[in-house]
Amino acid sequence: MKNKLGLSALTLLLNAGLAACSDDTEPGDPPPIEESETKELATTKNDNKDDPNTITDETVTYKTIKKSKATEPITSGPFTLSLQSTSSSAEFTGETAEFYGIKNINYVQVIMDIAHTTEATDTFQGRFIKIITNTGEHIDPDITFSDMINGEVYGKVDLTGSYVYVLQNSQPEDIKWIRVLIDPPHDENKSEIGEPFDIRVDFQ
């Protein structure tokens, strides 16, 4: 039961970020989310129909405070990335609050679209992606709430990941920009095949 609660909240958090980011899709932006993800979004209950920035079910309420547009695609080695981000808050209730041991969090969520453009087997260093905020926080992703892309990537493939960074000394409305820092990719011989990513994302 506890695992189900955790998975439910994680899925809703991911969907909240995808929904917020997909609102601003423009020509030249990354492709929309896959059909399977769209169906999952469509089945998410939302009791706040008058507030498109709030998503609620019986266990948690997510509120998007600020969001960014998609960054221009950035390439390092065989990987091309595009990012969108939100600054948000989450309020847990009942058994979900008990499961996580917290009632609310403020956080930055980064939705990352990655294209691997060769048939080779390469490694994307996605587990320890740090961000720096304009408020001076240096934050590692929260493993509990993130759906990370990490490890070996086989052949040409498109991937989407979600990275959640819990704010310690800032409020979501304080976030004006973040820098996303990613180590360079490696080939199957553990050799670097690109430059580190240092991507600035501006919030509206």
How would you describe this structure in keywords?
six-stranded antiparallel beta sheet; four-stranded antiparallel beta sheet; alpha+beta; single chain; 204 residues; Immunoglobulin-like
Quick summary:
This protein is an alpha+beta fold.
Taken in chain order, the helices and strands follow as HHEEEEHEEEEEEEEE
**Gyration radius, rounded:** 17 Å
CATH topology: Immunoglobulin-like
Task: Characterize the biggest β-sheet.
Answer: 6 strands, antiparallel
Number of domains: 1
Q: Unreliable segments (pLDDT under 50, ≥5 consecutive)?
A: 1-8, 25-45
Structural class: alpha+beta
Average the pLDDT over all residues and give the rounded result.
Answer: 82
Question: How many angstroms separate the termini?
Answer: 39 Å
Count of extended strands: 13
Q: Determine and state the CATH class.
A: Mainly Beta
Region (Disordered): 20-55
Organism: Domibacillus aminovorans
Signal peptide: 1-22
Keywords: Signal
What would you note in describing this structure?
- This is DUF4352 domain-containing protein.
- By secondary structure, the chain is an alpha+beta fold.
- The chain has one domain (about 1-200): Immunoglobulin-like (Sandwich).
- About 20% of the residues lie in helices and about 40% in strands.
- It is built from three helices and 13 strands; from the N terminus they run ααββββαβββββββββ.
- The protein has helices at about 1-20, 35-40, 95-100, and strands at about 55, 60-65, 75, 80-90, 105-115, 120-125, 130-135, 140, 150-155, 155-165, 175-180, 185, 195-200.
- Strands 1, 2, 3, 4, 5 and 10 form a six-stranded antiparallel sheet that branches. The protein has a four-stranded antiparallel sheet with strand order 8-7-11-13, with no helix packed on it.
- Strand 3 (about 75) and strand 4 (about 80-90) form a beta hairpin.
- Helix 1 (about 1-20) crosses helix 3 (about 95-100).
- The longest helix has 21 residues, at about 1-20.
- The radius of gyration is 17 Å and the shape is globular.
- It starts with a helix and ends with a strand.
- Residues about 1-10 and about 25-45 have low confidence and may be disordered.
